[in-house]
Design brief:
about 30% strand, 3 helices, single chain, about 140 residues, alpha+beta
Length: about 140
């Protein structure tokens, strides 16, 4: 009986560790999995903040990339957009992102947005950096 309890506890512990690893691995590829974007081949990640692991991978994902190759398939918009700025700052504020990792909207920038059911993506291209915020409900 004692052996059986030990085996059950070991099995539960292994399952918990495996599920935590699975959810953490899922968060690493959120751009490719959710938006079909592979920025890691064009840029190096210099800052990232992901939500706590969850079953649906919901929450605010924020990442800053330093561009190493200008081979982008992203069609950026060159015009300033105060609505995009407001939404971007709202998401980053909710995720408690430090100001040092935010773009300066008083300077020139390019942006890209994409929306789908229960999710939105904003990418700001400024000074050789890509500031990426994704919100998934």
């Amino acid at each position: 009986m004692k052996k059986r309890n030990i085996l059950i506890i070991m099995f539960c512990t292994i399952m918990c560790v495996c599920s935590i690893c699975y959810f953490n691995l899922n968060n690493d590829d959120y751009l490719e999995d959710n938006w079909n974007l592979n920025l890691k081949s064009q840029a190096n990640s210099i800052f990232e903040k992901y939500p706590e692991p969850s079953f649906h991978n919901d929450g605010i994902y924020y990442e800053v990339f330093e561009i190493i190759k200008h081979n982008s398939s992203i069609d950026f918009n060159n015009n300033k957009n105060s609505e995009i700025e407001m939404i971007f700052l709202e998401y980053t504020s909710e995720a408690s992102i430090s100001e040092e990792y935010l773009p300066c909207f008083s300077n020139k920038y390019q942006y890209y947005t994409k929306n789908k059911e229960n999710a939105s993506l904003i990418i700001i291209n400024q000074n050789q950096k890509l500031y990426v915020v994704s919100y998934k409900i």
